[in-house]
Design goal:
Order of helices and strands: HEHEEEEEEEEE
Structural class: mainly beta
Shape: elongated
Distance between the termini: 35 Å
Strand order of the largest sheet: 1-2-3-6-7-8-9-10
Largest sheet: 8 strands, antiparallel, barrel
Strand content: over 45%
Length: 209
C-alpha cells in the first residue's frame, strides 16, 4: 500500500515537472498595419509584447500576452465652406499608444509548440485618451485611460524551437460619440465602432518544448 502511494506521488510530481518544463515565456516585437477608418487616421504601429504559453493537450496551448504598441498619427485635411468660400486646414492626429492584455488558445496541426498553428486572442486594449471639457474657468484637458474589448483570430508558424511568427487580424470595439444637428439643437449619439489592424509578431520563446 505504501509502495503504491509512493509511486502515485512520484508519477504526479513527474507530470507536474513535465508541465512546468513545457510552459514557456516569450518576448516579441510587434508591427501593426491599421485598416479601414483606423488606417485613415493612423500610420504603422510598432511595439513589443511579453507572452506566456502552457500546453493543455497534445495539440492545444493556452497563451497570455501583454505589451505596448504605438501608432503614429497622420495629418488630416478638413474643409469648411462659409458663404461660398471653402477653407482647407490640416489637423495633426496625436499618436495612439495602446496596452494590449489578451489571452487565448493555439491549436497546433502537428504537435504542441511545433510547426503551423491557428488560434484566437481576446482581451482588452487600454489607451490613454485626451478629453477636453469646457468649464467656467476655461478649457480643461485631461488624459483618461479607456479600456476597449478586442478579439483577434491568428495564424502562426514555429520556424524553429525558439522562433515564433504569428499574423493576426486584430479588432478593437470602442464607443464613439457623434454630434447630431437637428434644426438649432445639437445632441450627441453614442455608437460602437470597430478599429482594426493587421498585427505581425516575431517572438523568441525561452526554454525548450
Amino acid at each position: 500500500m505504501k509502495a503504491r502511494m509512493i509511486l502515485a506521488v512520484a508519477a504526479f510530481a513527474g507530470c507536474g515537472m513535465a508541465m512546468a518544463q513545457e510552459s514557456r515565456f516569450s518576448a516579441g516585437l510587434e508591427l501593426g498595419m491599421p485598416m479601414g477608418d483606423f488606417g485613415d487616421a493612423y500610420g504603422i504601429g510598432f511595439g513589443a509584447t511579453l507572452g506566456y504559453e502552457i500546453p493543455v493537450g497534445d495539440n492545444l496551448g493556452f497563451m497570455a500576452q501583454a505589451g505596448y504598441i504605438t501608432f503614429s498619427g497622420k495629418d488630416l485635411e478638413t474643409s469648411v465652406t462659409v458663404g461660398g468660400t471653402t477653407v482647407t486646414s490640416s489637423v495633426k492626429v496625436d499618436n495612439a499608444g495602446m496596452i494590449p492584455v489578451q489571452v487565448g488558445l493555439k491549436y497546433y496541426f502537428s504537435d504542441n509548440q511545433e510547426g503551423l498553428y491557428a488560434g484566437l486572442l481576446t482581451g482588452l486594449h487600454m489607451q490613454s485618451v485626451k478629453e477636453v471639457e469646457v468649464t467656467t474657468s476655461g478649457i480643461d484637458e485631461k488624459n483618461t485611460l479607456k479600456s476597449n474589448f478586442g478579439v483577434a483570430p491568428l495564424i502562426g508558424f514555429m520556424v524553429t524551437e525558439n522562433i515564433d511568427l504569428a499574423l493576426r487580424y486584430q479588432m478593437i470595439f470602442s464607443k464613439q460619440e457623434t454630434a447630431v444637428v437637428t434644426g438649432t439643437t445639437v445632441t450627441t449619439e453614442e455608437e460602437t465602432v470597430t478599429n482594426s489592424y493587421i498585427g505581425l509578431r516575431a517572438a523568441y520563446m525561452f526554454g525548450s518544448r
